[in-house]
């Protein structure tokens, strides 16, 4: 799992990934931002990964919201809960937020005190 310092570095790397037209998405592996094909039927309003995109050593996921904030949608919340061992970044119009799942609850990581790194629970 990423350290808090790596979360901040990842946010900087993600600054150029926002798009005003479609949701872009990808993973972060070893502090490298990797964009993957958004497989959603309606990429203007949602995103979808292929399972293989998430099983190749990804430490975090990311996706953009073309016309909204970095707040979670219901679909985001469900997706994040499905991958609790990863961090999740949302790139909104005005900011980038990092989310973490603990005990089934999705938390916004705003500062180092909010972040609770843990050992990976099994290989992906």
Characterize the structure shown:
This protein has a six-stranded mixed beta sheet with strand order 2-1-3-4-5-6. Strand 5 (96-102) and strand 6 form a beta hairpin. It is built from three helices and six strands, in the order H-E-E-H-E-H-E-E-E. By secondary structure, it is of the alpha+beta class.
Primary descriptors:
6 strands, 6-stranded mixed sheet, 19% helix, alpha+beta, 124 residues, 26% strand
Set out the fold topology.
Blueprint: H1 4-14, E1 25-29, E2 32-36, H2 51-54, E3 60-64, H3 74-82, E4 87-91, E5 96-102, E6 105-109
Order of helices and strands: HEEHEHEEE
Number of DSSP helices? 3
In this structure, how is the largest beta sheet organized? 6 strands, mixed
Q: Terminal Cα separation, in Å?
A: 12 Å
The amount of beta strand, in percent, is: 25-35%
Overall form: globular
Which percent bin holds the helix content? Answer: 10-25%
Specify the structural class: alpha+beta
Strand order, biggest sheet?
2-1-3-4-5-6
Low-confidence spans: pLDDT under 50, at least 5 residues?
A: 120-124
The gyration radius over C-alpha positions equals 13 Å
Average pLDDT: 91
Say how many strands there are. Answer: 6
